[in-house]
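Below is how a single chain appears once it has passed through the pipeline. First comes the sequence as given, then the structure the pipeline wrote out for it. We keep one example in the README because the format questions we get most often are answered faster by looking than by reading.
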Amino acid sequence: MSDVVTYEKRGAIALLTLNRPEKLNALNYAANDRLLALLDMIEDDPAIGAIVLTGAGDRAFSAGGDIHEFTATIKAGVNQAVEAFCKRGQTMTARLEAFPKPIIAAVNGIAFGGGCEITEAVHLAVASEKAVFAKPEINIGIPPTFGGTQRLPRLAGRKRALELLLTGDRFSPQRAYEMGLINKVVPHDRLLPEAFDFAERILQHSPLAVARIITAVTRGINTTIEEGLLIEREQFALMAVTQDAVEGLDAWIERRKPTYQGR
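Resulting structure:
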């Protein structure tokens, strides 16, 4: 199980790799559970400030859920299918979305189904020019199950999302960028360097402020503006009492680079 998602620490950045290249990095239950376990470990490690998530090999980021595995679950009964497949996947993408440290997807190839849903859920995404996206679940007679019917419309708009959800058509990284699914498209050999550069730029700032921003956006995006402003105020109040806030203000006044301690 430990090999289905690999972990490598590069300074303050964790590199997580979906590691089933012979299956186009399909998300079986073991991979899903391993990813969640690694996120728990990384959240508790103060030495890690950001995550880059990619797929093994040059063909796929992830082709989605493991069809052979979840087909057997579906045939075993609806309750088991909801718990073992749907709920497990939704828990994973919700964890990615709300994770307090920035997660950057480095989409290196096929991002279908669950692979696309991971891209939708993480905070930032860089895609190789060789990447290709799709919401192909309709081709096998099911709707998306890891949050794709909810996050894609929020990112791309209702009609553009429905076009992709109802046709299963593939779409390019350029279109993914235009719809707000990814942040940039880069040459294939620049994918990981660009993702790590994103992370390094974030790591220059207070990790507490980064977490507060992620929380405010994640909680506020699905509320009214009034509720969202209350969340923003709450997150500011949590930040204002920290040493990092004092350091950031003092450094600006003194025209020097701040040194953040994460407290």
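The chain has eleven helices and ten strands.

See the next section for the split statistics.
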